[in-house]
Amino acid sequence: MAHWIEASPRGIYVRPADAWIDPSVPVERALITHGHADHARGGHGASWATPETLAIMALRYGTTEGVPVAYGETIRLGGVEISYVPAGHVLGSAQILLEHGGERVVVTGDYKRRDDPTCAPFEPVNCDIFITEATFGLPVFRHPPIGQEMDRLLGALHAAPDRCVLVGAYALGKAQRVIAELRAHGHADPIYIHGALERMCDLYRDFGVDLGELYPATGASADQMRGKVVISPPSALNDRWSRRLPDPITAMASGWMRVRQRARQKNVELPLVISDHADWDELTATIREVAPSEIWVTHGREEALVHWCDLHQMRARALALVGYEDEDEG
Fold first, then answer.
1. Full domain range(s) for residue 189
2. What does the record list as coiled-coil region(s) (predicted)?
3. Of 24, 171, 183, 326, whose CB count within 10 A is highest?
4. Which pTM does this prediction carry?
């Protein structure tokens, strides 16, 4: 089935379109699902992506070669009809629907099924081949409701008003989601952010995402940040920058915080299980909902999800692409 789609170490090649999906090296034609560095990069001859993803790529990688494709719009390359469908991962993230020779192939990129005020929600698309991520493709990964994690964060803040809560969150997607969820849970106080997050937060605002009042942590006094939430990239949690904060309660927002050893390794006092990826139940439920004839699994815990498909009489294979890493570790 779908002999016109090939998986290789550099990505997924769509032969009749002579285009690659999320290639790991520069190519002449690239179809990009979203702006994280393990899916998007500069140097391509031309890139097709949503307007939001192209803006993110311009900001992060200085790219200028992009062709915008809005959600629901269909383009045609070499006889392949290509549509971009919301993936619910981060701002502008998309599944790519390919239609050729009477077959439909969906490449999800990264996706999640939870509500997120900062991006369009995932839309299931029936197809013949479903190429799914499996970042959290093990039964141990079942993400709690985000409201529960926000209550834990705000509870820690209110219990220690002389301290601040320093939340490590990836610069694209996670930081903005944490901020928006805090606002949705009634946290109207100023939120302080690391300088590395400012431009991406401004870009989200440019696309209509309300983040409320944000203040630069650099230059603020310890007294100003006492009793406040401060958000930084994970890499800043334990570096010199954080030492000037008022006795911070160190938190980390990641699906990997389900693994206690990871939290201990990063000296995280308050692990927040907040993920922008589907968990095990959502991965398996999505496969059932899409009802493909064949499942290709990539980007994560491939073997367990392939085994689950086998147990449920579904044809599946692991792609084992290279260059794919979890952005939560960035």
1. 146-272
2. none
3. 171
4. 0.94
